[in-house]
Amino acid sequence: MLELTTRTGLALALALTLAAGACSSERTEKSTGSNWIECQTDADCALYAGATCGEESVCVDPSGNKIPRSALVTDPDAGGAAGGATGSGGTDAGAPDGSGGGAAGSGGARGSGGATASGGAAASGGASAGDGGAVATGDCYSPGQNLDRAYEPGAVGCECPADAPDLCLSGVALVCDGGRWQAVEDGPCMPGICWTPGEPDAAASRPLDGCACTSEGQEVCLHTYRSGYMTATCTDGKWTASPQDGACGCTSDAHCGFGSRCEAGQCLPGTCEVNGVRYAIGVGKIPDPSTCNRCVCETQGRLSCTLLPCPLEPPCPDGTVAASVCIACGPAGGCSISRTGCLPRCEANDDCAATYTPICDPDQQACSAGPCF
What we know:
Layout: H1 9-18, E1 52-53, E2 59-60, E3 167-169, E4 172-177, E5 180-184, H2 200-205, E6 219-224, E7 228-235, E8 238-243, E9 262-263, E10 266-267, E11 270-274, E12 277-280, E13 286-287, E14 294-297, E15 303-305, E16 320-329, E17 335-344, E18 359-361, E19 366-368
Parallel strand pairs: 11-17
Antiparallel strand pairs: 1-2, 3-4, 4-5, 6-7, 7-8, 9-10, 11-12, 13-14, 14-15, 16-17, 18-19
């Protein structure tokens, strides 16, 4: 896991003063050369308790002091993610925030009160979101894990990116509300709600319910969270979707589905797994599973996160450890997918024998795919 760093001077004093409200909402960061956090409305400053948008269009604290950008730094060891928490090349505004590779996170559902965390070992404890506590990876539900217990009484949704699209997966309607996935009874799974090519996951769940189109015969390549590549075709004045035998080319991030993005005409696969969801390199606004910070997916599944002093309470439940481990080695060596979160603690390889990640990482004390050479 990425570690919080201690900063001195004004940045530290400001961060500590405002930490109580640091997790209340998503930060809006402007990519400008200003020394201050720029804003247009008070909502742009909502991450800071009592902060407002001042007369000079920069965020100010309750005393009227400008809030410096130095209060928001990324991990210096993360390889310099462009754009901080948002990341360069991220999903277009208003577009779905996609998933790479179409692979669902592991950690299949178990009965409530003893959910099995990713990697196979049981994760004990875990306070409910209603108590303000953290939920261990593998215990909460998300688009990539525990969907079949999403409607169980007391089930808790994992954290979700603020701009996550509404999804309908395996008959479960998921919306991102209040910073967590919520399973609703209607929403995106309701019949009759049409989709456009900018909503590939909706197209996968309701292929015949496309909206009206005008260019007869037009085809658009889509990539969906669960179904991989599909083709949306304008037929008889409406969009319909059908599976694609092989990979096809994308023309925008909006066509790549939740967690992914389009680069050089291809939808990127997911390399950073958090709470069962896999995100592609360059996708930002990923919730840090142990703090209120937001992260960008970097190479080999590493997360580059802001470092505000706002750890979640309580910390990881008993039997789990805050860790980031490789769960798939690349064909040419190196890690291709990393899993980050409160993962089941292991002491020896025997603790991981029943999983597809059979090596107990001695440094992380979590099951992994082993060293990737």
